[in-house]
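Backbones bend. We report:
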Amino acid sequence: MFARHFIDSLDFACKGSEIQGEVPLTEMHRLQDKLAVPEGKISYVVRGFQDRNGKPMLEVALTGLCQLRCQRCLDGLAYPIQLVSRLLLVHESELDEFSDEGDEQDSIPADNRLDVLALLEEEILLSLPFAPAHPSGACQLVAEGLGRSEKNPFAVLAGLKNK
């Protein structure tokens, strides 16, 4: 079982702390309905730092491979995860200010008990394609002609209606 990490995000950033490890995909419960196969691991590094203006930030780096479900053929689709996110830590009372500024910097609320696993899972979910699919023509059902019907499927229903 994966040992969950909780950090004081502001303290973590101000001290320049870093944690790293691997998390099994089976531990990411919100991700499960997107996966064709729940096996695999994601490597992560979470590093705290302050930007050049002295604002506390987290850098989340994730690498790994997961099997998404293709929306065309419903078969597995190998999807590499390779992302780096920089997140500005903002006090809850300041969140509205940052959303109005139109700043391109992603921000999250500062938390004295930030669940690192939930943060990792959220970053993965945000990076996934809306409708993952194999390249056009690469799905096995379509390649074998099983995804296409020469007959109109509603013609069968029309035939039943006339009986």
Observations:
- Residues 2 and 71 are 30 Å apart (CA to CA).
- The beta strands are 6-7, 18-24, 35-37, 41-50, 56-69, 76-90, 106-109, 114-115.
- Residues 6-133 form one domain.
